[in-house]
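User: Quick sanity check before I run a bigger batch. Here is a single chain. Can you write out its predicted 3D structure?
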Amino acid sequence: MIKTGITDNRQSKIEIKMEIIILGTGCAKCKTTYEVVKKVIDENKIDANLTKIEDIMEIMKFNVMMLPAVVVDGVVKIKGKVPSEKEVKALFV
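Assistant: Done. Predicted structure follows.
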């Protein structure tokens, strides 16, 4: 993602990394979701920060009732299933 901004009367491009969060309590499906997303990021050289949240109190802040879930830049994109590599890749296009 590239944002354009004005600084000192000059236009500049600022590169912003995509923020991806895997929500899950540590079950097998949550771990598999993390691995699928990590594989897609690595294989496609996507510039992203990938983190995992397992604390149920933190997960509840996303108003998600089904896990695992994939959050991209603060928006829940996938929930309640292990996504395929194709589904994950579609999130980054």
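The first strand starts at residue 2 and ends at 7.

User: Great, the batch can go ahead then.
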